[in-house]
Every structure is written in structure tokens, then in C-alpha cells.
């Protein structure tokens, strides 16, 4: 493999099981010689099949043309050997994966020496929440005693399904797990993904919001928030969203009633603001930790596609702000999934605060607001969004938004799991045009996503074709 660009970044997200199923040498040789990949982003800690397992949508998509064609009963956990010295400030100490396939194996020790010998970089790839994430092939259980005591608490005092990122034991575990890896292995960097739903986001989805755990209550009180008054306000908000989602007819209309709710109970937005700040603080702490251990390590943010499909999230996560704690950003733009995901976000609003608008009206309005620059917005699920416009526009906006303070590596979806047979299918042409659009828009690299174990090599050939035409990959 030859590269004309010393800053080449052609990455692939890959789970540990691929190296077990196919062998380290075979995987590396395929990625280098057939596709032009020079960066591995390995899911080293996860209870989600999308990060650490085989295909999670094989019943719909079928099996790829490599690897083992059978379900993986993933137990989840750490796919490296945690060093006990790093876990004194958390009770989460024994979380080594207990999958039989990984017995006595450390994926980083297996891969790093061989990857380095072939001129490849190795990153660890981590995503929060680590557990119970719908659509991501969650493990059936989490074998960590007392983890339930770290969970969020909702407005009714019920224990939630995800740990509170304000819980010191859980937060320290995340920091310890990352410090352990960056200190003990010859890594090139870290890619971190934050896909938590804020209280307001939870309300729009019809869920009872949090986080009213004792840990977050204390943090909110330190910021002069009246927690009990906020709790009452959130209960009113929950009642409003339940009524709106049921089709209740408000006297002045649902949208007016929604803004009336915010004016009457400003605590709702104050709680949202504090929660959002604390959520971002975790990302910043991780960035600082990585740089403290080794300033030369590269730190990137894997940024949820909902951030550009949901106008509230887009408001909350400006690109310029994220450059304060990232060397590069990877906008998730899984184009063949994109139409269904955009439609899902539209319907979150259409079923609640905007329920007096038709789906077609909202699609057109939100496409304008969000600069979803498509020639056609028909049959979104079946066709997805066009790479020539969708990938190009999102990359262009991101490059503009970071103002030269961070690099932009676009997240190109290759056989990202579909939720129905009706959904658009990835093709070599989609892969090819997505890569071309990225570099034409000023992107400096790509990350093939979300998991090599579900990618068809024939679709990756579309990536290789584009990279050759761009002069980035020469496998002659």
C-alpha cells in the first residue's frame, strides 16, 4: 500500500470478534490491500453487539461475505485485560468479557504489534451508554454486581435502565477504563461517542425524564437549582407530552401550549441546561485525561447523527464548542439509514408539540431548518438520502463549523444495520459516492462504520474505487 498523503486517515470501526473469527493477519491484509484502510478503531469495551459482536441485523441484511455466518452470543465487557491498579476509586473492577471465544485473550495485545508492523494506527473506540441500547444488539445481561445502584432515577422515583453519568462510581469507572488503556498500550488515540438523551429529549420520546438520582441532585443544587420545584415542573411537562402524544386537543393548539409550558415552568429549561453541561463535562474530562497521559494521542468525537436531524440537539451541540475538547470530529452519516432516521426525528415532534402539522409539512419545514438539501424528500425510508447532497452538505457544514480548529473525518455507513426490509440498502455506488462527496466538501478523512463484521467486501470495494480515484490509495 502506498499513500500520497502523509495525513491519510481511512479508518474502520471493528469489533474484537472479527479478529477471532478471521485471524488478525487476514483481517489486516484485507483492510490494507483491498480497501486502503490505515486506521483501526477497535470496540474494546461494550455490551452492545454493534460495537463488539457480529452483525446485529443478519435476519434482515443477511450475512456478509467474510467472517462466520452465525449469531454471536455476546456477553460483553472488556476485550482487553484491565489492570487492577487503575480501579481503586470505583467498585466496577471485574468487567473482563466472559465470552468463550475471548478466553485468555487481550484484543489489544493481539492486534497492536501486527497492525504497527504494517504501518497502521490503532485507536480504541468507546460509546456511552455502554448497556441496554435498543437497536444496537445489547447483551442479555450485565455481569457487574451493584451496577443497578448507579442508575438514573426518573421523576416518579423509579430506577432507570442506564447508569447516571453523575454517579461518582460509574464516572470514575469510565475514566479509569480509558486511563488504563491509554497508559498501558501503544495506542494512537481514542474515539469517544456520547449518545445520551437529555431530559427534554426523553420527554419528546414519551418517556419520564431523569436524572433525579442523589448524585445529580447534589450537582444541580450546587448550581443553585431548586430540585423539588424542578421535579414538580417536570411532572407537568410529562403530563403535557402524554396528552399531546395521545392526540389531546388543546384550546390554543399544541405548539402554543408547549411554549406556554416553558414560560410557566422555566425550571424545565434550567434542568435541561444543567444536565447538558454535566453531560458535556464528561467528554471534556476524558479529553483532558487522555492528553494528560500522553499529549501526542489523538482524541476524536464520534458525533450522533441525531445532532443534525433534530433541531433541538443541533442547537445544543455546536461544532465550534466541540473543538475545545477534540482533535477531530466524525459526524455519523450512515446514508442508507438516513431517510428512516430523519423521518423518525420528524415524527418525535409530529407526535407531540407539532402534532397539528402533517408529516409532509414537517419533513419540508425541518429539511429547510436543518439544511437537508435533497432534490426529493419522497420515500425517505426506501431511498435514504443521496450521498451527493447529504454527505456533501453535512461535511461542508461541519468543516465550516469547526473553523479549522479540528479535522473532519466523515462517518460513512457501510451496511449499517437496517430496522426493516423496507429500508434502503447499502451498495458499492453509495459507498463510492459517499467517499467522493466527503473529500469534495473538504473532509480530511473517513471512518467506515459502524462495524466491519457486518460490512460486505463488495460494498467496501466502492470505497477502494473512490480512494484510488482521489489518489489516496494505490494497491497496484
Structure write-up:
There is one protein chain. The protein is of the alpha/beta class. It is built from 20 helices and 12 strands. An 8-stranded parallel β-barrel has the order 1-2-5-8-9-10-11-12, surrounded by 6 helices. The longest helix is centred in the middle third of the chain and has 27 residues, at 267-293. The radius of gyration is 22 Å and the shape is globular. The termini are close together. The mean pLDDT is 94.
List keywords for this structure.
single chain; 476 residues; alpha/beta; two-stranded antiparallel ribbon; 20 helices
Helix content: 40-55%
Number of helices: 20
Cα end-to-end separation: 8 Å
Strand order of the largest sheet: 1-2-5-8-9-10-11-12
Beta strand %: 5-15%
Stretches with pLDDT under 50, minimum 5 residues: none
State the total count of DSSP E strands. Answer: 12
- Rg estimate, integer Å: 22 Å
Largest sheet: 8 strands, parallel, barrel
Please tell me what the overall shape is.
globular
Briefly say what this structure is:
With 476 residues, this protein is an alpha/beta fold.
Question: Which helices and strands, and how do they pair?
Answer:
Layout (H helix, E strand, L loop, with lengths): L9 E5 L1 H7 L1 H12 L3 E4 L2 E2 L2 H4 L5 H4 L15 E2 L28 H11 L3 E8 L22 E3 L5 E5 L4 H17 L4 E6 L4 H6 L9 H9 L4 H19 L8 H11 L2 H27 L4 E6 L2 H4 L1 H6 L2 H4 L5 E6 L1 H16 L8 H12 L9 H4 L6 H13 L4 E7 L14 H13 L4 E5 L7 H13 L7
Parallel strand pairs: 1-2, 1-12, 2-5, 5-8, 8-9, 9-10, 10-11, 11-12
Antiparallel strand pairs: 3-4, 6-7
Helix pairs in contact: 1-2, 6-11, 9-10, 9-11, 15-16, 18-19, 19-20
Amino acid at each position: 500500500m502506498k499513500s500520497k498523503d502523509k495525513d491519510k486517515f481511512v479508518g474502520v470501526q471493528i469489533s474484537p470478534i472479527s479478529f477471532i473469527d478471521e485471524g488478525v493477519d487476514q483481517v489486516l491484509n484485507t483492510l490494507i490491500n483491498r480497501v486502503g484502510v490505515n486506521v483501526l478503531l477497535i470496540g474494546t469495551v461494550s455490551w452492545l453487539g454493534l460495537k463488539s459482536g457480529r452483525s446485529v441485523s443478519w435476519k434482515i441484511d443477511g450475512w456478509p461475505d467474510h467472517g462466520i455466518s452465525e449469531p454471536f452470543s455476546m456477553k460483553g465487557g472488556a476485550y482487553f485485560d484491565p489492570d487492577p491498579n487503575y480501579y481503586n476509586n470505583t467498585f466496577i473492577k471485574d468487567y473482563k468479557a466472559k465470552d468463550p471465544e475471548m478466553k485468555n485473550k487481550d484484543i489489544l495485545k493481539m492486534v497492536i504489534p501486527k497492525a504497527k508492523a504494517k504501518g497502521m494506527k490503532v485507536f480504541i473506540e468507546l460509546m456511552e451508554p455502554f448497556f441496554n441500547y435498543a437497536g444496537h444488539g445489547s447483551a442479555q445481561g450485565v455481569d457487574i454486581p451493584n451496577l443497578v445502584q448507579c442508575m438514573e432515577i426518573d421523576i416518579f422515583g423509579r430506577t432507570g435502565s442506564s447508569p447516571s453519568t453523575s454517579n461518582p462510581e460509574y464516572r470514575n469507572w469510565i475514566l479509569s477504563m480509558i486511563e488504563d488503556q491509554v497508559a498501558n498500550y501503544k495506542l494512537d488515540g481514542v474515539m469517544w461517542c456520547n449518545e445520551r438523551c437529555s431530559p427534554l429529549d426523553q420527554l419528546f420520546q414519551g418517556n419520564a425524564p431523569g436524572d433525579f438520582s442523589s448524585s445529580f441532585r447534589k450537582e444541580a443544587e450546587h448550581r443553585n437549582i431548586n430540585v423539588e420545584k424542578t421535579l414538580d415542573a417536570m411532572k407537568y411537562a410529562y403530563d403535557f407530552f402524554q396528552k399531546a402524544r395521545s392526540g389531546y386537543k388543546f384550546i390554543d393548539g399544541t405548539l402554543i401550549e408547549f411554549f406556554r409550558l416553558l414560560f410557566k415552568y422555566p425550571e424545565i429549561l434550567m434542568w435541561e441546561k444543567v444536565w447538558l453541561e454535566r453531560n458535556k463535562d464528561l467528554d471534556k474530562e476524558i479529553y483532558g485525561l487522555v492528553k494528560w497521559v500522553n499529549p501526542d494521542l489523538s482524541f476524536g468525537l464520534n458525533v450522533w447523527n441525531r445532532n443534525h436531524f433534530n433541531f433541538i440537539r443541533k442547537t445544543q451541540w455546536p461544532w465550534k464548542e466541540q473543538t475545545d475538547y477534540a482533535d477531530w470530529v466524525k459526524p455519523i452519516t450512515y446514508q442508507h439509514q438516513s431517510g428512516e432516521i430523519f423521518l423518525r426525528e420528524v415524527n418525535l415532534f409530529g407526535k407531540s408539540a407539532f402534532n397539528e402539522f402533517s408529516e409532509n409539512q414537517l419533513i419540508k419545514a425541518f429539511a429547510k431548518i436543518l439544511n437537508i438539501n435533497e432534490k426529493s424528500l419522497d420515500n425517505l425510508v426506501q431511498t435514504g438520502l443521496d450521498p451527493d447532497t447529504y454527505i456533501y452538505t453535512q461535511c461542508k457544514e461541519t468543516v465550516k463549523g469547526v473553523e479549522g480548529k479540528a479535522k473532519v473525518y466523515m462517518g460513512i455507513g457501510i451496511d449499517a444495520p437496517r430496522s426493516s426490509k423496507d429500508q434502503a440498502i447499502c451498495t458499492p455506488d453509495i459507498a463510492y459516492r459517499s467517499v467522493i462527496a466527503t473529500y469534495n466538501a473538504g473532509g480530511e478523512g473517513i471512518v467506515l462504520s459502524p462495524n466491519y463484521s457486518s460490512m460486505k467486501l463488495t460494498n467496501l470495494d466502492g470505497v477502494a474505487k473512490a480512494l484510488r480515484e482521489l489518489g489516496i490509495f494505490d494497491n497496484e
